[in-house]
Amino acid sequence: MGCVWRQFDSALPDKLARQILIVDFLSHKWLSMCIMKINCCNCFKLVSTPQRFKIFNYLKTKQRSTVSELVRLTTLRQPTVTFHINQLAKCGFVKKIKDGRNVFCQIRKKCPDCPLFV
């Protein structure tokens, strides 16, 4: 999944790169066998932003991270990263845990058969 963004990000406009990413998702057998729910469309739409996709994938591999780590990863400003994290949290992908001044983000699997977690 990440290869699609790196391969087409600079060569194609954002909208076309997102369409290619979705086509790449749909070409996999595991997704074509899966019965997609209405919520799946919302989830794909949510992670179609390159920076949210990067945050989502990083949290998937790391399990838990602070907002400041995600700021360094994405090279975005802290309020922008917080906005993206809040969007992921609103949809149910991320759980935020506040510890003093630090906010830890942890990935949360929304559906048991979610194709984004395969």
- For the report, how would you describe the main beta sheet? 3 strands, antiparallel
Number of β-strand runs: 3
How far apart, in Å, are the first and last alpha carbons?
Answer: 11 Å
- List the helices and strands in order: HHHHHEHHEE
CATH class of the domain at 36-117: Mainly Alpha
Strand content: 5-15%
Mean pLDDT: 75
- Provide the low-confidence segments as ranges: 1-10, 29-34
- Side by side, the strands of the main sheet go 1-3-2
Would you tell me which CATH topology of the domain at 36-117 applies? Arc Repressor Mutant, subunit A
Count of DSSP helices? 7
Rounded to the nearest angstrom, the radius of gyration is: 15 Å
Structural class: alpha+beta
- Looking at the overall shape, the CATH architecture of the domain at 36-117 is Orthogonal Bundle
Give the CATH superfamily of the domain at 36-117.
Winged helix-like DNA-binding domain superfamily/Winged helix DNA-binding domain
Helix content: 55-70%
Name the shape in a single word. Answer: globular
